[in-house]
């Protein structure tokens, strides 16, 4: 089931999310809902706070090539345990900040640890788009958005435009 995605600025997108301690069916179905929401958007990653849940859970699937099998990942308590010195620049976007994109520099390769829906621990090296995406999503769990990497002026400009967009959307609804 699809869930509504919160739009920046929203105080819930600035919060530190709490670790998942007990795997429940509710959390598993939240993961499924988040994947459905992400694919529908469409996007390549989504974090729980973006659907208003302040727990450490992200989903991603960065397979973009036509004909390649999808690889949906649901990650509880994801953590970067090592990062490369080498960096990469990607033009990032965010489902909570639609239609705004900017170059962000991040470590090119990261080692990520997480718990899956069955409570099993995984560790994996990620590179390319996967590395960027997983770092972007984990940032969400710490209340950080990709625009926080930009110069203040650019960030304020995007925030102003988003505030205006939200006002217009609210007006349309009423
Ligand atoms: Ni995002």
TrEMBL record:
Q: Which residues form the active site?
A: 137
- One record GO biological process: translation
Q: Which residues bind Fe cation?
A: 94, 136, 140
Q: What is this protein called?
A: Peptide deformylase
Relay the cofactor remark from the entry.
Binds 1 Fe(2+) ion.
Q: Does the keyword Metal-binding apply?
A: yes
- Can the keyword Electron transport be found in this entry's annotation? no
EC number of the protein: 3.5.1.88
Q: What does the record give as the reaction this protein catalyses?
A: N-terminal N-formyl-L-methionyl-[peptide] + H2O = N-terminal L-methionyl-[peptide] + formate
Which family would the database say this protein is a member of? Belongs to the polypeptide deformylase family.
